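Can anyone check this?
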Amino acid sequence: MDLSISRYIDSLIDRYPCMEECKEQIIQAYEILRSSYSNGKKLLVCGNGGSASDSEHIVGELMKGFKLKREVQTEQVAALKRIDLEMGTFLAANLQGALPAITLTAHSSLTTAFMNDCDPVLVFAQQVNGYGNIGDVFLGISTSGNSQNVLYAAVTAKAQGLKVIGLTGERKNKLEDFCDICIKVPAIETYKIQELHLPVYHCLCLMLEEFFFGGARSNR
């Protein structure tokens, strides 16, 4: 792994020494996401309660600049200006590169309609069924690892050829049975698990941004 990327893992462990035991799982999750994005795919992410907030937080870090200025590519600049020089120039100067990610927690009209008309426990699975394509990644966040709506979504994702990443607490759980990799942070109480989830996904987002928009890109 390029040093410009691995430094984020090192920084995470410096700040949270207990996360040493999750290092390989974080690296494997990064590799899954990097491969998917390199092939033009996307991330689907969901969770409940605080994990729903984390889902939206992750999307916010991926869909716009996190630490780096993500300038649009030269060919996109040319295309924008070709359509309208004035507006294209403004767009080219202000749009940012994005890593496509969709949170399954935010579509209130869809989710409330589905929960009213169908079985509410399948609200995330239905969206995976609609959005998911082979090569995409599903990230299920559950402090217990046993949230039924996340489990149904994970099963649907596996059936549709998505890679599945779990982000849970340390206890044995059902979600890890469906995961290609499950990051089980070393905590048991819900709030402590959530406190460790944030630096994990920040680390993943930073590594991905560095690879696709930072100095690591010039070394490929």
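Reply from J.R.: I decoded it. The longest strand covers residues 163-168.
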